[in-house]
Amino acid sequence: MTSTRFHDRTVLVTGAGSGIGRAVALAFAAEGAQVVVAGRRREPLDDTAALIEEAGGKALALTADVSRAADVQAVVAAAVDRFGSLDAAVNNAGVFRGGQPLADLSESDWTEQLDINVTGVFHALQAEVRQMRSQPSGGAIVNIASVFGVHARHPGATAYAATKAAVSVLTRGAARDHIGDGVRINAVSPGPVETEMSLLPGETEAERAERMENSVPLGRASTTAEIAAAVLYLASDDAASVVGADLVVDSGKTT
Ligand SMILES: NC(=O)c1ccc[n+]([C@@H]2O[C@H](COP(=O)([O-])OP(=O)(O)OC[C@H]3O[C@@H](n4cnc5c(N)ncnc54)[C@H](OP(=O)(O)O)[C@@H]3O)[C@@H](O)[C@H]2O)c1
To answer: How many other CB atoms are found less than 10 A from the CB of residue 40?
Structure first.
């Protein structure tokens, strides 16, 4: 039987035009949610919305840059205007810039990662919590951090790691600040996932698979569906007493 854990609930997913965000959006829709998909580029968002609608679900695609507070506020307002509430949100939009040691990272790569990965999550949390705490049913938020944040060290990813550590810390703090408002906030920290972001420059998917076989205990990267399953658990009533958790899904990388 198909699960209906999110029947008639409205869920916002940022960065939903590709990778993990698209998988998360499709998984919510498959369990009955109406899904608002946001990101900067229109076309991939429309493709995600079309996939949801072809499967019989409801979607609303909205362009937004999470580094701009007004964009995120407009997305939350539009979601509520269209569907009546905002019941869950997944702050997934993020970028990786790096590969080189910290001393060789450009100032613009540093700033871009901070603006999107940290300030973007801050903007989203503010807009989402303000809406959710005004609703009798509250809401649930899941932030996408990374094992490169507080959980593990990796060369060539120091600035990105700093931004993802900030997401883990923001999650715990905001969870404590807002559980009394009926808003549950948690994080998922993925290890390597089968998306473009985990490909090294010039690397093919087959070469990544070989690298994973030799570098993570499970011998492979996580699928986007596996990350989505963790996100949906934390957003669902199954996790009603899970507050401020940072769930590592990393093929054993940090064991
Ligand atoms: N793949 C991995 O191995 C891995 C591991 C750990 C954590 N993560 C995290 O998982 C999340 C998703 O990554 P992914 O692997 O699915 O990569 P991805 O396919 O590149 O997805 C990132 C998404 O974020 C959107 N985005 C980027 N900047 C944005 C902005 N300023 N405003 C709104 N949307 C923005 C992008 O769309 P637009 O460019 O159209 O805006 C894109 O759809 C990221 O936070 C990433 O750090 C990934």
So the answer is: 17
For atom 29 of ligand 1, the residue with the nearest CA is 93
**95 pocket-lining for ligand 1 (C-beta < 6 Å):** yes
The CATH classification number of 10-247 equals 3.40.50.720
Helices (H), the chain: 19-30, 42-54, 69-83, 107-113, 120-132, 158-178, 205-215, 224-235
* Catalytically annotated residues: 160
* Residue 104, burial from CB neighbour count under 10 angstroms (0-12, 13-18, 19+): exposed
Q: Label residue 3 by pLDDT band (50, 70, 90).
A: confident
Ligand 1 atom nearest residue 192's Cα? 3
- Which among 254, 109, 39, 120 is positioned nearest to 128, based on CA atoms? 120
Q: What is the pLDDT of residue 100?
A: 95
128 burial class (0-12, 13-18, 19+ CB within 10 angstroms)? buried
